Each structure stands twice: as C-alpha cells, then as structure tokens.
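Why run this: before we spend reagent on co-expression, it is cheaper to look at a predicted model of the complex and decide which construct boundaries make sense. The entries below are exactly what would go into the expression plan.
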Amino acid sequence: MSKVGQPEKMIIDGKRIDGRSFEEFRPITAEVGVLKRAEGSAIFKFGDTYALAAVYGPRTMHPKHMQNPQKAILRCRYSMAPFSTNERIRPGVSRRSVEISKVLNEALSNVVFFEDYPKTGIDVFVEILQADASTRCAGLNAASLALTEAGIPIRDLISSCSVGKVDNQIVLDVGGNEDQFGDVDMATATIGSEDKFVLLQMDGIITKEEFPILIELARKGCTEVYERQKNALKEKYKTGEIDVES
Amino acid sequence: MDKEVKSEILVKERQLVIPGETLARGLDYLPSSGCYRVNNELKSKLLGLVKLKDRFIGIIPLAGVYIPKTGDGIIGLVEDMQTTIWIVDINSPYDAILPLGEAVGEYVDLNRTDISIYYDIGDLIYAKVLNVSKSKQVQLTMNDHRARKLIGGRVLTITPSKVPRLIGKQGSMIELIKNKTKCQIIVGQNGVVWIKGEQEGLAAKAILTIENESHISGLTDKITAMLEKGE
Amino acid sequence: MLKASENYVRKLIEEGMRIDERKFEQFREIKIETDVIKKAEGSARVLLGNTHVLVGVKMSVNEPFPDTPDEGVLIVNAELVPVASPTFDPGPPDKDSIELARVVDRGIRESKCIDLEKLCIEDGKKVWNVNIDIHVLDHDGNLIDASALGAMAALTKTRIPRYEDEKIVFGEYQGKIPLKDTPIAVTITKISNKLLVDANLEEENALDARITIATNENGDLCAIQKGGVGFFTTEELKKAADLSIEKGKELRALIK
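The model came back. Tokens follow.
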C-alpha cells in the first residue's frame, strides 16, 4: 500500500535519504531571547523544522475563578503557522493542535515549581514557523529554554527528540520524508538527561524487541539535545571573568 | 545503612548556573532562594548567579517577576480605587492595595470627599510594603519618610533581582549615576526606577546597560566611562 | 459509595492493594454487546466496571485524501456527554475528548486493521468513510480502553451498505467491513511508582502518569500514547509493554 510520491527506497548504501547516518541529528540550532516583549523566548530548529516559543508570566490569572490559590497554572498552546507546510494550513485551532498542546503541557508540568507563584498564570506559546516533522519535539525544546529565560523556576530542562523506523532500520530524528513514507514515528522527551520520559507518543508497528531499542536511542538523542540547550543558555550569558565587586 | 556523602561545593561565587545544575553535594550546605534539594544534592531552580553566604547557597536570577516582600520600598502606579482604598500596580503578578488609613494622616469625611484628591488614577507613588499575606494579598503604606507622590520625571523597569547591582555596594553605583547626570533617582525593590533631573536620558542609558550586562565583569568601569563621555 | 481521597488511594497502592480489592493486573468485569443501535451500520456497548460507553459506526461516501486516492477514510470522534459525569460540560469537544478520539483512532489506524483499499468505490473520486463515534455515557475511569474495545467490537459487526445510483441504500448491505487484525488498547496507570491496569475514576484522580499501548494479533505494538503529568522510566516502559501484550490477548478473546 504505497502512497503517492513514495520513493522506492528510503535507505541507500547505509545512508538515509538526506545523507544522514542512522543515529545522526539534522543540524540543530538553539537560540535564547529572540523576542523582546515576552518574558522568555527561544527558537529551536531540527533541520528545516523551526519552532518558536514565548513565555508570558507569571502574571495575574484571568478569569479569577480559574486561579489556584496555592499554585501557578500553566497554559500551553501549540499552533502551526499557515505557511509552515506545503499545503497551507487554515489558521485556528485543530484537533491535532489541541492534543499536542495537552501533551506539551503535561511534559513541562513535570518540572515547573508551581507552588512558588500561587494564583498566577504562566502562558507558553509554541509557534511552528516551518514544519518538516518532529515539530512537537522542537517546540518542547524551545519552550523549555523560554521558561528558563523567563526566570520561571524549574527542576531541569525538558529535552525532546524523535526516533523512528524507516525501511526496517531504526533511526534518530525523523525528518519530513521519513515521517510521511516511513513505518514508525515516535516522539519522546525526558527530564534533562535522566531516565524519565515525560512525553511518549508512537505511530506505526514495532515488535516487543524493537521497543527498548527505540527507547534507548531516544534517551541518547534527548541527552544530546540537552547539551545543545545548555550551551544555548550559557552562550547567551557569557560572563567573562568573575567580577569581585557586587 | 546510610552512606555518608562527603560534602563538597561545586560552584564559585557569581558563577553562572542553569536550572538542574548541581551546586553542592552532601548535607552540609543549605538551600537559600533559587535552589532545591534532591537526595543529597543541592540544585539550582533558575538561570542565575551563585551567591554564597556561610553555608547557604542561593541563586540571583537573571530574570523573573517581582514577588512582594514585607518591608520593601516600591514604586507603583495607581490604577483604580474604591471608597477607602487605592489599587496599585506594583509590576508584579500580584496587585497591591493602599488603604486610606495608611495613606492619609488626617480625618477624612467620606460623605464629602472623593479620595482621588489625595491620589488619583495614573499617579506614581513610592510606598512601603506593609504586609504580604500567605495568600499573596499585598498591603502598602505611605507611613514612611521616603513615601510620596512622584511628579514629573520618567520611569523605567529593570529585572527586580538586578536592583542590588544597580544600587551597588553601599549605594556606590547609583550615587555615581546620580552625580554624573545631576538627577534624582529612586529605585524600587520591585524593579521600577524613577529618574528626574538634567540628563535623564543618559541616566536611563546607564541603568539599562546595567540591566543587560549585570552578569558581565568590568561593569563599573564601563558605566563610569559612559557617564564621563556624557552620551 | 464514599469517594476515596487521593492520599488514601496512594497509601493502599503502596501497600499492594486497590480500593476495590482487585489485583494490579486485573480488569474489572467487562460486558460487551454488539448491534445495539439498529440505525448504525455497526455498534457496540461496553460496560467496564461502572464505565459505560456506546460506540456507533456509520458509513458514508466522500472524496478520498489526495495522497491516498484509492483508500477509504477512517474518522474517529468522541463525545463526553454531560450525562456521564458532573465534570463534563456541554459544548464543542474539549481536550480530553479530542485526546480520547485520537488515541482510539491511532490504534485502529496504525494497525491497519481495516483494509482501506477494499473501501474504494471509484479511484480518486469516491471512497467509503468509516465514521466511528464514541459516546461516553458513564465515567468511572479508563475511558480509553473501554472506547477502543467498543470501537473494535462494533467494527467486527459493521456491514457496508449497498451503494446504488450514487446513493447509499441504508438497511441493505453488501457484506461486512474488511478487517485484517484486531488491535486492542490497554492503558497502564502509574501510581506511587507501581503500575496497574484499568484504573477506575478514583485511581485516575490519583495517578502520576498513564500510558496507552495498542497491540495487534501478532503481539506487536502499534500505537503508544503517554498521558498525565508524571514520567516513566525505561524499566517501567518495558513492563508496560509486556502488560499490554498480555492483557491485549485477554481482551481480544472477548470480541473474537
């Protein structure tokens, strides 16, 4: 059952369709503080997938009856720009974006210290500016950085990546073609480099034996992403020598 | 059987750390603000600079909103009022109220007087935080020698955690700016700064430089040079 | 029945017990009835403990998707109707009902259990749409497994109506919907670092995290969705996979 436009082979001579090896990421870019208005913001790219995240808050929560007297409330919105894909996406909310907003919120909620800001709201907005698969992963990475930059206290960063199966080969960081014509696409995220999965969704068929292999590769990938995120933060705030005066 | 973990500190004063970074091991070190303990390790909750004091390790955040504390001197904007209170925006997710009794010394006949004659919507005031309840209800008072309405001048906001840097050791940094620009400058703990005087623009520029480069060394020299040049 | 508090549920589980005295790997009593709605092309009612779900399958004819011009279309929708729980509000689908529909959809779609190629009427122009609608009538936890089971049970009895002169002739049929597999979703809930299946409502309110794994007849995993705030370690994920394959077999036997 092949789809329109499906290439005959996705793996040629031990390399993937875009020339990558099986455990290789697309070029990653992570940059913090890209927007002036938001309390925190960041951009995260996996190859041609661009995600922008902005954080507003903690701020007064409206409507008042939705406030939690003991904790901050996290609101997450994932959205794709109309020009982000080949076929234009109608602006507005879709069922898919509602689901993704929910899983991103659940992932981030593992690390935010909600009790530090009772009655407030923290808003995280993720905009996918260009989509070439693994958008929720890029979005989550950007959101983590944005929360940090905004000064929201968190236990650690959330690091996310995708793994999949293409022509029976297990691969890291599923790209656009691989998502469309591959067999398996699994989005994952961990708390920093720890063995704690806070996001896990899979489409496709895998055997019981393949599952732990995918998970282990995902963990490796998330750890690599974590290093990139940390570098982005330290890059922005290079301090030079320690200033003794305070 | 508890394994005795040797206490060791892993960071230096003013080192830049990120959330999740381990600051110390063992139980000898205690968390101050901005840190949390997990098992035997002290970790940072924030992106910020390490502050060490005796056995306490704290983090000065590079960003973050103002959380009101009793005793703070703040600058706020009157945004609304009811019969006997003013509601004040104090640059925080929490609004503050200034009760009539804390603002006016004399007797007020509420039947004849509209309290806007004292403070009106849009007025800028320097006030003290009288009390912050557990549920984050903030009460202000004008019962302080520094408290007053601030007229004219201009206002800008900086990250609240950078206020100490702006003020400097024993007020040295802020005095430097005041003298060189011939301005009155009042700095609220909530990050709101009021400037009034001859070279307000230059003062503002110096303050914003401190805001953006508070974590970089050599700042004092840079500010001094900037103010000498006068532009 | 007195509502058990979160802390009480957790304490019990830490001591190896559940509030209704089930074992951690034990499902509640399951009753499945099919062909309960005559007007639907397929239907099933599932009672999982006190959770009550009704699933209807309606067939319609529409254009195919551009990248699969010779395949039928699967659409899954879920309604958490207000009768089911004091927490369900009337109105457009909210994030919980959307997630429910999409998770059930994932298991059915990724397992390729419906032979969609056989649902093509005219290549590129007309295909059968399989509309699966989940109606949750009573919520006592584990809506996902109950709904997925109901959807699969309904599909096994779904018949394709006759299509004549560009019109569907409701009430007359041309055979059953072509099925190649029987995917079963099993949701594993983590509470106080223990894993259990078929959480009831009180257990769901106390959960750390949950993971739904759909498996096919071959024992392969065809869809995974982690839900709830907490996290899973690699060990827990492996255990969850084993559990879902084992329980999947048991549940599959109820509808085959």
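The longest strand of chain C covers residues 126-138. Chain C touches chain A through 41 residues (CB under 8 Å). Bring this page to Monday's planning discussion.
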